[in-house]
Write the structure tokens for this entry.
Amino acid sequence: MKKIKIFSVLLVFFICIYPKGLVFANGNSLDLEKIIKNAVESSYSVKAVESELIKARNNYKDELSLSNNLEKRLRDNDRFISLKNKSQRTKEEEEEYLSYVMIYGEPMDDSEIVEANKSVITIPVKNEYYIYQCKNKLQVTKNNALQKIYEKYSYILKDRDNLQIYKEKFNSAENDFNKIKIQSDLGIISKLEEKEKESNFLREKENYENAKRKFNLLVMEFNKVIGAPIDTEYTNYLKDYYMGYIVVKPYEDYILDALKNRAEVLNGKEYVDTLRYANSVAVNLYPKYHRERDIAEFTLENAEDLLELKKLDIKMEVKKLYDDLKVKCKSLESYRESYNEAKSQLDELSLKYTIGNVSRNDFENKKIEYEEKILKYKNLQRDIWLAQLKLDNACSLGTDAEKTIY
């Protein structure tokens, strides 16, 4: 399949000064790189999985100790049986035999020996798999925390710029209204025209206040995600998206990457190998048609089927994200002409205003119109960047920790 070159967005460092009228009291700068590192490490979900991994490692130590004790018990049992079957024992052998009687009572029977051998062989393998699964789950949980931060931050960038537009509209409406009030007082225009401008002013004021409330709520939600005090406010945003070239790979390449890298597949393959080993142990320890052999075989087959189902889910997820990225790219391409036209018109308008060919009021009103078109294009870029991030994550370890469990 032919590769498609498109415009997308890369995360770059530059200072985005917040509108002067909205500078917060504590003047914090939002350094996303620093926040990401701290937020991911302090995330409740990440800490929970880290605790799970610590518990798994400690449990492995306990289980390994149990396995070693069982192994010793099997060795002792062989000696116990050997001494018990002796018709005559030396004094030392008698003392040794009595010590076994005191500790164990009776030698293990055949079924106990089989179960003990099964545990000795399988305990290390099963616990090693569980630790492996927890490690992958931890990385997926970190991916999820990281993606949420980027997503919330993207919403903030969009609403920050939208808020600036609403602020400019409000300022323009306020200037118009104040101008009209003077003209009305002088009798130049009617009271009806004054009321129309007042209505527009009040509407833009309400829109601006609503936008501020919405933005403040987004910042509070972002603070919750990164673990900062909920009322933390920021003056500067030190990262934004910058348009650059990327290559969108063919859909099949994304599928191959996902089926190779996803934690569900990695864990699934390891789980199947673990059960395959357990099944071979059951075959060696139990006679044909024994219930334990049937259970081991059935469990293995179920795990293999589950792995294939998870692969299908991964393909569907990647297809959905890939299609979403393509739609957003097409939207950006179709809007590019409008963006270039608006940018050109804004540059021309700015020049006319500089040389005095356009009034300040007309300049402000037309500038807002062009800026809205430019902002729409910028937000499409941000949407593409986020869509690309989600697709890349879906083709690496993934972001849903629950799907990694077997």
User: Anything to note?
Assistant: Confidence is low (pLDDT under 50) at residues 1-26. Residues 58 and 64 are 10 Å apart (CA to CA). The chain is about 75% helix and 10% strand. The two ends are 35 Å apart (CA to CA).
